[in-house]
Every structure is written in structure tokens, then in C-alpha cells.
Specification:
alpha/beta, six-stranded parallel β-sheet, 14% strand, globular
């Protein structure tokens, strides 16, 4: 049985019950779709096929989770008692790989109330002292562990090990064992979106997943895959907010018409841009006052760059010249530019053929931009979104992509995070991480 954190399970039960009541009252198609999504997630989480039986199983699990075992109540009791530090450390020092990435920063309590101190990312050799670059991670070097093991209590790996082979990762694990340091691994990617060949990443996971003292992942589906492949339980904790809270509360800009966007970035290995863009161009052309915007990085148009793809650029320009889309070729967006771009879309289409989870989807959820995500990976379990058939194995399901666009056009779904919900979720995530660290250090 995969292991969902009690806070996550309670959220699932609350969401399912609220949607069930709302569907009984309104019978709305959008509510029904959300209810079906919630029922599916509840079934996967509990391992029970029938939604009502899954609900009963979840309630039984929660009723058996007493306040003594609830991490949030444990933290509150510890904070309210004199001498509570005798029950747990004042702080836990974490060597986090990385530490400065937005995901990791937002797994921490913003006021530091979780008592977790994450070591700053050491700058890689040759990187200027003013740079914020963390890759390639210095902490993955066993020699760094040998030299700095007294500075941290727990080693927590998220990502950044793309260049590390199984032998190098095994050496890292051995160094941690040598110094008695527990390893936590958050499995963001079960299939690396940057690698066309799944073999190297799977080989890395074959070292990390069995070796980790605790495993975390973001969705029940990913946890189920980990359990099936490696027979290891993984705690399910949701992806925290990506966009700063002040922008989560900012009203969306007024948009005329209906704008669909595809951001091809620098053509990651998991992207199949042209098949998706061709379908979108034809579909959008049949909708009144609708447009398709395609963005791509300059390096795809640069003959000297590794990502150069002249055939792709030629077809995109041909479509743009024919009025089927607007094409913008630009450098990497900074955060402000990215949030402005996403906020200017009604629908962001992810052209992925494989992968697992998406920070892009989370940013869209923060900003209130609807997403059409492929049915590969576990994107649909992250946040409410439209989905269409697209995978490396089965290719593109044209009709489902057309329907996703038309559904977004008809209903203009407003799936947006609230600042209060995101803040509460972040607090729960921070508490859960602290409890995991404490459990390894007792």
C-alpha cells in the first residue's frame, strides 16, 4: 500500500466530499469532471477501486491517525510546551540538492517556524561568486560529504544528478553511510524529461530509490509506480506554489478573445512540438476571436547552438506567415516575464510525450491559466487541468487535443489557487518535511 501523508489524505477526502455535495446540488458538467478526478485520485491513494469504498477506507485511515501521530499537531504541541526541545532538536540542518530552487525554497516555512536550516548551494568550480547557479551540484561529490559531514544532519536529494552515473551515486550513498547521515530522496521525475533514452535515469533511480531512508513524491500515481517497481513506500506531498503570493492574489489581466499558447522552450527531449502545433493551428482557426501563440528560445534558431532545428523553425515561420499563429523567438524569460506571458494566456498546452510532474503546471495554477496536459506521466493528478492523449509510445490523439481546446474555449475554466490555500498547503508541507527529518534522527 502506498503511503499518503495524513494531511494530503484529509485534503483529498474534503475535496471529494465538497465536490460530491456540489454535484448533487448543481449537476454541472465541470463539477462532475472535477469530482471524477478527485474520485480517481482517492482510489489510487487508497488502493481501492470503488470511490465510495475508497472514501470509507480513507476515513478509516484518518480516524486511526490520532493527534499523537499527526505531524501538524505534534509541531503545535512542541511549540506550546516548556522544554519541548527535549522531544526534538531546535533545528535540523539539511544538505539539500539543490537548496536555492523555487520548489525547495517553498517546501520551507516562510517564517522559519519549521526549524529547518538548508545549507546554501556551494558554487560549482569556475562559477563567478555573484552567480546563483547551483548546477552541477557540488554536494553530490563524496569528497564534499567527507569534508562537510559535520555541518548537516540529513542529506536531501531532489534533482540535479543527470550527469551522475550509478557508480557515482553509489559512492555518494556510501559516503553518507560512512558518516551516519540519512538520505531523503524526493522523486520528482520517474522519467527524465531532458533525456530521450530512459535508461540512464532509471539506472540512477535503481541506486537512489532502494538506498533512500525515506522517499517523497508529488502524486499518488508516482507513489504507486515507485511501489510497483521498487517495492518501496513514498510519502505523497503536493508541489508547493511557484509564483510569489502577491501575484497569486493579483487579478488576471483582461484578455480580448481567446489565446492558446505553446512554449517550446529549447526543445526538451520530451517535446513533440510540431504535431501539437499543427492540430492547434487548425482547431483555433475554427474558433471565433481565437489565436495561437508559439514561443521558442533563440538557440533553436541559432546554427551554432546545440538545440538548432532549422526544419522546425521553417515550418513555424510558414505557419506564422500564413496567419495560423504568432511566433515569438526570444531569450529565456526571467520570472517576471514568464508570469506576464502565462497570465496572458487562456490556455497553455504542454506538448510533452513523456515526463512525470510539472512546475509549469503549478505556475499556471497560481496565475489562473488553464492547462491542457498530456495523459503521460502524472500531470493530471497535480492540479485540475484538461488532458489529451499524447505519449512517446502512442503518439498524439488528435481528437482529444481538439476537444480539450474546444472545452477550454466553451467553458473558460477558472482553476486558480487561492493565496490562503497555497499558504496553508505550504505550512503543511513544511511540517511534513520536518517530521520526516525528525523521524530519521530519533
Amino acid at each position: 500500500m502506498l503511503m499518503a501523508h495524513p494531511a494530503v489524505l484529509k485534503d483529498l477526502v474534503d475535496r471529494y466530499e465538497t465536490l460530491a455535495l456540489l454535484h448533487t446540488e448543481t449537476g454541472a458538467a465541470e463539477v462532475r469532471r472535477k469530482l471524477e478526478d478527485a474520485a480517481y485520485t482517492l482510489c489510487v491513494t487508497t488502493g481501492v477501486k470503488d470511490p465510495e469504498a475508497a472514501l470509507l477506507a480513507a476515513r478509516a485511515c484518518l480516524s486511526g491517525t490520532s493527534a499523537e501521530n499527526d505531524p501538524s499537531s505534534t509541531a503545535r504541541r512542541a511549540d506550546s510546551r516548556t522544554g519541548a526541545t527535549s522531544r526534538r532538536r531546535d533545528t535540523v540542518r539539511v544538505a539539500s540538492v539543490p537548496a536555492g530552487h523555487v520548489y525547495v525554497r517553498h517546501c520551507a516555512d516562510p517564517e522559519g517556524a519549521d526549524g529547518v536550516v538548508r545549507l546554501a548551494d556551494p558554487r560549482p568550480n569556475g562559477v563567478p561568486s555573484t552567480s546563483q547557479r547551483w548546477w552541477p551540484p557540488v554536494m553530490l561529490d563524496p569528497e564534499w560529504v567527507d569534508a562537510h559531514h559535520e555541518e548537516f544532519d540529513v542529506f536531501h536529494l531532489h534533482f540535479g544528478f543527470d550527469a551522475q552515473g550509478p557508480d557515482a551515486l553509489a559512492a555518494l550513498v556510501a559516503a553518507l553511510r560512512r558518516h551516519g547521515k540519512p538520505l531523503v530522496y524526493t522523486a520528482h521525475d520517474l522519467r527524465n524529461p531532458h533525456q530521450a533514452d530512459p535508461g540512464p535515469h532509471l539506472a540512477a533511480l535503481d541506486v537512489l530509490v532502494p538506498a533512500a531512508d525515506r522517499l517523497i513524491t508529488l502524486t499518488p500515481g508516482a507513489a504507486a509506480e515507485i511501489a510497483a517497481r521498487w517495492n518501496r513506500p513514498a510519502t505523497v506531498l503536493p508541489h508547493p506554489h511557484v509564483v510569489q503570493p502577491s501575484l497569486v492574489t493579483r487579478p488576471r489581466p483582461y484578455l480580448e478573445g481567446f489565446r492558446v499558447g505553446v512554449h517550446a522552450k529549447s526543445l526538451r527531449a520530451n517535446m513533440a512540438v510540431l504535431p501539437v502545433v499543427r492540430v492547434l493551428a487548425e482547431t483555433v482557426a475554427g474558433l471565433d476571436d481565437a489565436e495561437l501563440a508559439v514561443n521558442i528560445h533563440h538557440e533553436v534558431d541559432d546554427p551554432a547552438a546545440h538545440a538548432h532545428d532549422p526544419a522546425l523553425m521553417a515550418e513555424l515561420r510558414k505557419l506564422a506567415d500564413g496567419g495560423a499563429l504568432t511566433l515569438r523567438v526570444h531569450d529565456y524569460f526571467d520570472d517576471d516575464q514568464l508570469w506576464e506571458y502565462l497570465g496572458g494566456l487562456d490556455l497553455s498546452v504542454l506538448p510533452y510525450t513523456f515526463g512525470t510532474h510539472s512546475g509549469w503546471l503549478e505556475a499556471c495554477h497560481d496565475l489562473g491559466t488553464a492547462v491542457a496536459a498530456p495523459d503521460c506521466g502524472y500531470y493530471v493528478q497535480q492540479r485540475p487541468c484538461l488532458t489529451y492523449g499524447h505519449s512517446q509510445h502512442d503518439g498524439l490523439d488528435v481528437r482529444s487535443l481538439e476537444e480539450a481546446v474546444r472545452e477550454a474555449y466553451r467553458t473558460r475554466p477558472a482553476w486558480r489557487a487561492s493565496a490562503d490555500d497555497r499558504a496553508a498547503e505550504r505550512a503543511r508541507i513544511a511540517v511534513a518535511h520536518r517530521e520526516i527529518y525528525d523521524g530519521l534522527l530519533r
